[in-house]
Amino acid sequence: MTDIGAVIMLTDDEKALFKEKLTFEETLAFAHQNAKDIIACGFDLKKTFIYSDLEYVGGHMLMNIWEFSKLIPFNQVRGAFGFDVSTNIGRIMFPAVQWYVFSPDLPRSSYIF
After folding, report:
1. Exposure string (b/e) for 5-38, b if CB count within 10 Å is 16 or more?
2. What's the confidence (pLDDT) of residue 10?
3. How far apart, in whole angstroms, are the C-alpha atoms of residue 112 and residue 36?
């Protein structure tokens, strides 16, 4: 068993936004399976926080994501991700969700799945 702490974001929302043939329900099911695979690697469940963006992000987390999003100019994410005028707004918002993983607000000793 590994003796390190970890925060693992399952980006099921990204899969549904960027792989348009998949539904949010399908990608959530994939995330649940991914969590089982991660657990099978031997992570200490007392030191590991695994969460699904679709299930967990809300409340104060969403407020912080919006705060991050106000600080990020579109031209920076456009260049990094290759967005153009036909990019859907879900894809455009997604980088702010990703950046939130570095926030000190994330619980470090709870387990979601």
Report:
1. eeebbbbbbbbbbeeeeeeeeebbebbeebbeeb
2. 93
3. 11
pLDDT at 1 over 60: no
User: Taking the domains of the chain in order of start, what are their residue ranges?
Assistant: 6-102
Which CATH number fits the domain 6-102, given the four candidates 3.40.50.720, 3.50.20.10, 3.20.20.70, 3.40.50.620? 3.40.50.620
Contact assessment for residue 31 and residue 12, using Cβ atoms and an 8 Å cutoff? yes
How many Å separate Cα 20 from the centre of its chain?
17
The three-class DSSP label of residue 18 is: helix
pTM score: 0.67
